[in-house]
């Protein structure tokens, strides 16, 4: 089942923000009246009706209102989520897949969700708030169409067989962030030269392979810092950066704060009973 949205009507946002996953077991299910888009900061599995998807940090799900879904994650973290209403007409609608691996595009979608959240949750005069909410709706509409175009573009590339298969490379990086990763190693897996891979990657994603890997390592470190009691050194080792000074330097450069400060500012929900926000039997709260 896909999420159907209108091509000519504006979505009505119900709420948007960054939230922790507090009920990461399949026993607890959701059935939201709203359409829901998630961008994950952690890895896990999601069941949508009878289908199961395995997602990594940066991946997205788009779930139609009224659909039953549940989660499983060994190390749940935080995700960005927007709930909205939409009334598509049969002749003026598009279908967005339930599961979208975004790869390097996750950085773009993350920034867009942050901006929409800032606009929608802003406080001001009635007129100013209405205008910012209107901008938030338009930006959400553009974001949804962008997700649709990206998903369908990926499907066309896959069917054509004429484009470079990035998904295998990106998934391998996600699964091996704790190990040394070099461009030569990735090139060997893709059966092309390192120079060719570097050029293709830069052209495709407008960043270097090393910059992409570093960003993914820091994203994983953020999740570990807020969902585990590992020491800073152990977190660094878990993301392939065993030199404490280098890990601290790169984390601060990317996140804007030290690892210890990031943990202090984002670990508060670990003290919350995970079942206090749970829904059971598909009931909405």
Report what the structure shows.
The protein has helices at residues 106-120, 126-160, 166-175, 183-190, 194-205, 209-227, 232-238, 244-255, 259-266, and strands at residues 3-6, 12-20, 29-30, 35-40, 44-48, 51-55, 60-63, 69-72, 78-85, 93-96, 99-100. It is an alpha+beta fold. The strands form three sheets. Strands 2-9-4-7-11 form a five-stranded antiparallel sheet, with helices on one face. Strands 3-8-5-6 form a four-stranded antiparallel sheet, with no helix packed on it. Strands 1-10 form a two-stranded antiparallel sheet. The model is unreliable at 155-163 and 269-285 (pLDDT under 50).
The low-confidence parts are 155-163, 269-285
Overall pLDDT score: 84
* Radius of gyration using CA atoms only: 20 Å
The biggest beta sheet is recorded as: 5 strands, antiparallel
Cross-sheet strand order for the largest sheet: 2-9-4-7-11
Helix/strand order:
EEEEEEEEEEEHHHHHHHHH
Q: Strand tally, please?
A: 11
Q: In which range does the helix fraction lie?
A: 40-55%
Helix count from the secondary structure assignment:
9
Shape: globular
Class by SSE composition: alpha+beta
N- and C-termini, Cα separation: 23 Å
Strand content is 15-25%
């Amino acid at each position: 089942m896909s999420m159907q949205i209108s091509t000519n009507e504006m979505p009505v946002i119900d709420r948007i923000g960054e939230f922790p996953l507090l009920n990461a077991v399949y026993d607890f299910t959701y059935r939201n009246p709203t359409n829901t888009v998630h961008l994950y900061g952690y890895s896990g599995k999601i069941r949508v009706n009878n289908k199961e998807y395995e997602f990594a940090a940066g991946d997205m799900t788009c779930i139609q209102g009224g659909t039953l879904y549940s989660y499983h994650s060994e190390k749940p973290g935080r995700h960005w989520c927007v709930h909205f209403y939409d009334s598509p007409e049969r002749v003026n609608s598009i279908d967005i897949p339930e599961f979208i691996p975004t790869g390097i595009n996750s950085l773009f979608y993350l920034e867009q969700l942050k901006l929409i959240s800032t606009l929608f949750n802003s406080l001001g005069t009635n007129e100013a708030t209405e205008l910012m909410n209107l901008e938030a709706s338009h930006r959400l509409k553009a974001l949804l169409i962008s997700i649709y175009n990206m998903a369908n573009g990926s499907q066309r590339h896959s069917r054509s067989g004429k484009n470079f298969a990035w998904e295998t490379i990106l998934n391998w990086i996600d699964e091996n962030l704790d190990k040394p990763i070099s461009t030569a190693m990735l090139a060997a897996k893709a059966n092309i030269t390192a120079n060719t891979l570097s050029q293709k990657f830069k052209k495709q994603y407008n960043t270097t392979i090393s910059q992409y890997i570093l960003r993914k390592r820091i994203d994983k470190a953020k999740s570990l810092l807020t969902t585990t009691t590992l020491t800073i050194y152990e977190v660094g080792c878990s993301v392939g950066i065993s030199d404490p000074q280098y890990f601290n330097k790169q984390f601060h450069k990317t996140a804007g704060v030290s690892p210890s400060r990031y943990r202090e500012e984002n670990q508060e929900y670990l003290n919350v009973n995970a079942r206090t926000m749970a829904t059971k039997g598909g009931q909405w709260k």
